[in-house]
């Protein structure tokens, strides 16, 4: 797994790289501190699996440069935007500009790594395409994680523990999943997701 991490703060970059490598074996991280440097690297890297992009960069900020980065990478490489902004519309703005996901830096390390690992799933593109066909409103990456764990038979308490979130947050995710998939209960959600190939059956 080759990951390009664009972040100008060295301590932040080193801390996340350490956590990412500890959680995900065989991860190679390429570092850049500016968007200009990142675009030069992208032009010379043949195989790139993911980009982590800080929104606050010196010179050209991440949000402004995002369309150019998306064009350089193509549609298949996930771009995960990291932000400390309190703008309630920032997630929408980043996705409109080409980001795959937007994660706030205030979340704890376990949740951050868990959400990043979601996009390391090689079956993600086909799952997202299936989700677009089935759900009136697409499930978020976090809702996809919750749904996959529910398919494994995990209770709300276990799901909350594995994802490093509260029970209340877990229940809210379940409620939104039921609403989006237009089913009455979690069993119905799991069955619909499996038959529609949004998720894979639990082994």
UniProtKB/TrEMBL annotation:
Ranges where the HTH luxR-type domain occurs: 132-197
Residue numbers carrying 4-aspartylphosphate: 54
CDD domains registered for this protein in UniProt: LuxR_C_like (cd06170), REC_NarL-like (cd17535)
Pfam family, one: GerE
Coiled coil segments of this chain: none
Protein name: Response regulator transcription factor
UniProt keyword terms in alphabetical order: DNA-binding, Phosphoprotein
GO biological process, one term: phosphorelay signal transduction system
GO MF terms, alphabetically ordered: DNA binding
Keyword Phosphoprotein: yes
InterPro entries to which the protein is assigned, alphabetical: CheY-like_superfamily (IPR011006), NreC/VraR/RcsB-like_REC (IPR058245), Sig_transdc_resp-reg_C-effctor (IPR016032), Sig_transdc_resp-reg_receiver (IPR001789), Tscrpt_reg_LuxR_C (IPR000792), WalR-like (IPR039420), WH-like_DNA-bd_sf (IPR036388)
Keyword presence, Glycoprotein: no
Native source organism of the sequence: Nitrosomonas oligotropha
Start and end residues of each Response regulatory domain: 2-120
Domain of life of the source: Bacteria
